[in-house]
Amino acid sequence: MLDFIATEQSDLRGGVSPWQAGAHRPIRHPLTESIATEVLIVGAGITGSLMAEHLTRQGRQVCVIDRERPGMGSTAASTAMLEWEIDRSLQELAAIYGFEPAAEIYRLSLGAVAGLYELVQSNGLAPTLRGRNTVYLAGGDAGARELLAEHELRERAGLPGAFLDRRTLSAEFAFDREAAIVSPGSAEVDPLRLSHALLSLAERRGAKLYDGEAVGYDSGGRTTHVALDNGCSIEADHVVLATGYVMPDIVTSDLHKTASSWVIATPRQSPQQLWRDGALIWEASKNYLYARTTTDGRIVIGGEDDDSVVAQSDRDRLMPRKATILLDKLQRLWPRAEPFAEFAWSGAFSTTVDGLPLIGVVPGHPRLYAAYGYGGNGITFSYLASRMIGRLIDGERLAWFDHFAIDRAPVV
């Protein structure tokens, strides 16, 4: 459920994930001279790929730069659980911003997953994409009473789902928890294959992909000049920052923070060792456990989030202990699984105090756009960002964009 991101070029993630590169791996080309373009996208991961696909479909001239191979940073370490339910429950979000804004945000997230699913299916981009239900399990301080209240608020907001008590949950899914909310409308995918397919499609429409790291931004004129580490520069009418949580100095937010998470993937399991329908699993607790299956029968389970650990060396040092904890939690959650970690990885992830992303115009820089702070909804919010920023570049601004504004007021 998390999208992992980097602090430095050599500090992207630890360990190895099970995701595979797509059949057509986008290749960066060297940039030997300064150029001009209509839109420059900084970052060729899943956010940059979604942006490139959308803007080229709109007929824009697009260039994409990245300092490393496309998708091999944060995207390769994502768990790619495409959920519309966000890190803050609807109850929590309503307590911060009021019911109507919170309900609208949840409906926008639901629509984003549906839009992404349609995009992938209509273009035949990712055979690993599968629609999924989510099972939101009681956990921590959230028991049956709290989940029932959340379900009733979701019903009021027009959101789909059903409340399951302990007996029904056990009978239908064999999970031994006090209660759960089961909701349709989510999905799962191999994130690396999806990112490569999107970027390849954008390239076929004319997008250019270059090797380069942005080291400076000058947006004082009618266009923005982006200086690269090789001495060249790119002049663009619009610049989109899709660089994880590595934000340049011109982007600031009191809401933004970073943390670390750890993930393991089991060996291939038999069908009898997997839970019903391969549903996406997550817990109703602050530092929740999350789990999914893969097309080849693995179980991916993660969590153990820690906002005091960011450096890769510290994550690597903790990985054996975190993997052991996750295996123990897997055994308690689903005793039928073979409790062995064939893959283990970790990374820092970007989140915000209110659980909502930071998407939109960079304050003070009207032709510079950014997308950060995704938390556990990385690819869902990446899709939403591509549609928002596409409209902003077209000169269209909708009222609901304020929910995700980079300069929105901090939560009190």
> Any idea of the CATH topology of the domain at 12-78 and 192-253 and 355-404?
FAD/NAD(P)-binding domain
Structural category is: alpha/beta
Radius of gyration: 21 Å
Sheet of most strands: 11 strands, mixed
Q: So, CATH architecture of the domain at 12-78 and 192-253 and 355-404?
A: 3-Layer(bba) Sandwich
Low-confidence segments, given as residue ranges, are 1-13
CATH classification class of the domain at 12-78 and 192-253 and 355-404: Alpha Beta
Q: Strand content of the residues, in percent?
A: 25-35%
Report on this model:
With 412 residues, the protein is of the alpha/beta class. The protein has a domain at 12-78 and 192-253 and 355-404: FAD/NAD(P)-binding domain (3-Layer(bba) Sandwich), CATH 3.50.50.60. Helices cover 29% and strands 29% of the residues. The protein contains eight helices and 20 strands. The chain has helices spanning 46-57, 90-97, 99-123, 144-156, 166-173, 191-204, 312-333, 378-393; strands spanning 4-5, 14-16, 29-30, 35-42, 62-66, 81-82, 130-138, 162-165, 179-188, 208-211, 214-218, 224-228, 233-241, 256-265, 280-284, 290-293, 299-306, 343-352, 358-362, 365-372. Strands 1, 2, 6, 7, 8, 9, 14, 15, 16, 17 and 18 form an eleven-stranded mixed β-sheet that branches. Strands 3, 4, 5, 10, 11, 12, 13, 19 and 20 form a nine-stranded mixed β-sheet that branches. Helix 1 (46-57) packs parallel to helix 6 (191-204).
